[in-house]
Design a protein that fits this description.
The structure is a single chain. The chain has two domains: 120 residues, no CATH class; 147 residues, no CATH class. It contains 13 helices and four strands. The protein is mostly helical. A two-stranded antiparallel sheet has the order 1-2. The protein has a two-stranded antiparallel sheet with strand order 3-4.
């Protein structure tokens, strides 16, 4: 990021940014290249601003090769005979496309830094608060009390995680959920706890997808039909099943294919994950009803995809 920082003093140990100078110098450098200005005009310019100006000038086709080569420093001094002939005509259209987005991102970051510097300057000029010693000590005690509470909560969470892992194997359906690709012990326990073990509770996998919020809501009034996000659902179940679906696509080629197909249709990442979760619920429901662990060799779509990949490699 093209930012210049000025030291304000060893006692304060603070840095501040001088907004506006970077973009101004970069623009001046590009104009200097266009006008063929002398290299000495840039002696006081920062290295980063100079580099950005050189890059802009080269991409726009208005650089003077001799001046560009003369700006080389350090080890590049010994490469001047090769630098100058390589500059003219070396940038193609695809090079400009590659560099356009990073350059635009640098401009955005520079604008954000300017805004941040303005906010910091405004805060530093704000009047100081009248905070006495008693109030400082009271706030300190409150913060330390909250820290102790957080440490106790973190310790309790770790103990619960260990208990979940220790007792997960005792559940009769544990093997079904732990056999899923990249389900893990904690995530498998979360899905199992929200799914339950009562078979008559769900008459079809669609009932599970509705409970988990993995299927949208369709509303129809006359000739008007709308499909919307399902808000009324078990939020913990949706979090658990979508977490598993997101992890599974990194280990299951079938899950990766379902996710990629959803993205190709124009779905964003959360929507594609919900589509994959809905597909997984159908598979899990079949394993759950049959009380058998998940086996990719018995999963028809996964097996077919694996056979296609094998034949493609052999062919």
């Amino acid at each position: 990021m093209s930012a210049r920082w000025t030291w304000l003093g060893a006692s304060s140990q603070r840095l501040t940014r001088n907004p506006g100078r970077c973009s101004t110098r970069r623009a001046a450098g590009g104009q200097a290249l266009a006008d063929g200005a002398d290299v000495a005009d840039w002696e006081q310019t920062g290295r980063l601003e100079k580099g950005l100006a050189i890059l802009a000038a080269v991409l726009e086709g208005r650089a003077a090769p001799a001046a560009m080569a003369a700006w080389a420093t350090g080890r590049r001094r010994s490469q001047l005979p090769g630098v100058e002939p390589a500059l003219p005509g070396g940038v193609r259209e695809h090079h400009r496309r590659w560099v356009a987005r990073p350059r635009a991102h640098l401009d955005v970051l520079e604008a954000q830094l300017d805004a941040l510097s303005a906010d910091i300057a405004r805060l530093r000029t704000a009047p100081a608060g009248l905070c006495g010693t008693v109030e400082v000590e009271a706030r300190r005690d409150a913060v330390l009390a909250m820290v102790r509470v957080l440490r106790a909560l973190l310790a309790a969470i770790k103990d619960l995680d260990r208990a979940v892992v220790a007792h997960l194997g005792e559940h009769p359906d544990a093997e079904i959920f732990t056999s899923l690709p990249r389900s893990g012990r904690i995530n498998a326990a979360q899905v199992l706890a929200e799914w339950g073990d009562c078979r008559p509770a769900y008459d079809s996998p669609d009932a599970v997808t509705c409970l988990a919020g993995a299927t949208p809501v369709t509303k129809q009034s006359g000739k008007h039909t709308s499909v919307r996000f399902r808000w009324a659902c078990n939020k913990r179940f949706r979090q658990a099943i979508t977490t598993f679906a997101d992890n599974s696509r990194h280990a299951s080629p079938w899950a990766a294919e379902v996710y990629a197909t959803a993205l190709a249709r124009g779905c964003d990442h959360p929507h594609a994950i919900r589509i994959l979760a809905r597909a997984w619920i159908r598979v899990i429901w079949r394993c759950w009803m049959d009380q058998v662990p998940y086996d990719p060799a018995k999963h028809g779509a996964a097996r077919k995809l694996a056979e296609m990949a094998t034949s493609a490699r052999q062919g």
